Amino acid sequence: EIITSRSSMEGSDTRNYSSQILSEQNEQDQRLRTPKHRIYSSGASGASMLPWNRENKGNNGESQELCDSDSDPISDHKLPDELFEELKGLGTIELTIRNILLEILRQNQSKDLKSGKTLMNSNFLNGIIDVSNANLKKMTRSMLNKLDEGQQWFDRVLNKQTWTLTSEFIDYCNQFTDHLCNRAQFPTLVRKSFVTGHFDPFVHEGHDIAQDIMRHFSVRLEAPCNINSKSSKLERAYAIDTIVYIMNRIFRMHFDVLDENWIEIFTRDTKSHKIDGVLRVFQMKKFTQTIIIMEFSHGQYASENKDNDDQVKLSRNAKRILNKLLNNVPCKKARVYTIQSINGNISIKYLIRPLPSIYLYEEFVNIKIPMTFDDMEEFAKSMPILMDFQVDVLRTVKLMNKKSIED
């Protein structure tokens, strides 16, 4: 039932509304008591779900490593009493939007259960609405558009920060046109600087980042390669030369507030789960808080199962991290980012909790790693979006640093 006004929170309606919240939570708690029926959000029946244990182990040892000790549910950020208080602070439109999104979540949970999916390969069963899926995003917009402010709310909570383009940056990236992206001309263009006079590492940071990244990938194409080399098939070797280089370069000038760690990293928020790469925010005192997690999904090519399993691995752990982050950052401003290197692409997404029990997972950008000089024109177009990603992360860092995070 959709709540339509604040007055419905009074009198007997208040008791009914409270019962609705407790009913949702009790339904979830009942499932959590039985591993067979475990599910992490309200709304879908878990009767057909199988327990995840060592006997279910498939060919993906890395996914199994994630699941062996994964006995605790990833529940909502709030306990039932806290959730009720949080809901009382919402306006009419927000209450209506929440119920619409919960219904979308329940419908997709039901579909995934019927198709045989489990917690380890379904975002919906983990209580996450994956709006990075174009069809689902279109349907969600359509349903919210029926409300006076529904679509505006949706666009606002998913809003990404935009980096201010500089003339030098624009001139550098615009030179990579289709007819110039070839082996003969590209190596010269990529090394050309549009900074005149004194170079300022902060003022000209964007130009410097774009030039370094473009030159790095040009060198990868310029350099001779032995046909017997298997480096592109090796997960870490491929990642170090692609995604690791890009992320290091994007945030190099901001390591006073961010700390990068690579290869099989443990974090407090993800328990014993190993992460291929993390970016943490330095806090006051001695504590840090993870806000970006990365996964290297094999080398240049990976199976469909590996792709999906690692996507869910990232989103599940992002939800754990976000729940911790929400203790100190307002729900409408907190976000956790995930980065996956998969099949020659870099997929950057972010997870938010804009309303009680509502977790939205959106794509920031998907970038194709250039394999030929023909790919470099499109790769150059992704440079402004990578800078947008940088300022979006730094905005989140600024919000976090307003209050020290402690264990």
Mind explaining what this structure looks like?
This protein has 407 residues and is of the alpha/beta class. The chain folds into 2 domains: 6-127, no CATH class; 167-400, no CATH class. It is 43% helix and 14% strand. The chain is built from 14 helices and 7 strands. A 7-stranded mixed β-sheet has the order 1-7-6-5-4-3-2, with helices on both faces. Strand 4, helix 12 (304-325) and strand 5 form a beta-alpha-beta unit. Helix 7 runs parallel beside helix 9. The chain is globular, with a radius of gyration of 23 Å. It comes from Acaulospora morrowiae. This is 12815_t:CDS:1. Residues 1-75 are annotated as: Disordered. Residues 1-25 have a biased composition (Polar residues).
Quick tags:
407 residues, alpha/beta, 2 domains, seven-stranded mixed sheet, 14 helices, 7 strands, globular, 12815_t:CDS:1
What is this structure's SSE topology?
Layout: H1 11-33, H2 61-67, H3 80-88, H4 92-114, E1 128-130, H5 134-144, H6 150-157, H7 167-174, H8 186-190, H9 205-222, H10 235-241, H11 243-251, E2 258-265, E3 275-282, E4 288-297, H12 304-325, E5 336-342, E6 345-355, E7 358-368, H13 376-381, H14 383-400
Parallel strand pairs: 1-7, 4-5
Antiparallel strand pairs: 2-3, 3-4, 5-6, 6-7
Helix pairs in contact: 7-9
Biased composition (Polar residues): 1-25
Protein name: 12815_t:CDS:1
Region (Disordered): 1-75
